[in-house]
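User: Please predict the structure of the protein below. I'd like the answer in structure-token form so I can feed it into my own downstream comparison script.

Assistant: Understood. Taking the following sequence of 162 residues as input:
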Amino acid sequence: MSVSLPAELEKKIDEVITHYPVSKRSASLPVLHLWQEQFGFISDEAIEFIAKKLDLQPVHILELVTFYPMFRREAIGKHHIKVCRTLSCALGGAHETHACFKKQTGAQGDDHGPISSPDGKYTIEYVECLAACGTAPVVMVNDDFYENVGPQKAGELLNKYK
């Protein structure tokens, strides 16, 4: 299997590996992060490539990808909306906020996993605590953090992230 990588990504991966001279295996997580930043998710081809690059069996990479929730196995929308659903946020209206994002984007599917809008612009997902219980409900859009996100503010965020 041959994977074509942008030269800049391959250079970054090679550089990260040099940070772990005792065991290339230790570079697994940083390399997975680099891959996901570039492609948005970790494909089967990525697992094969990274394993080969680090002199590991593919299962060693797959177990990391399936264990850590920050790694995705499928592509997501351009804007990733994460709605906290832990107790404070649930009591503060997180479910209404999530429902508002779904309705306004047209996303449909099982609320227990990421769901994407039909145009692929948005992926909406419940997440566990985002550590701002006093300002619930809280939401992250990509890497941006927002507090007190009720249905009105949810609509404003969608306008911001078109």
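That's the full token string. The chain has a mean pLDDT of 95.
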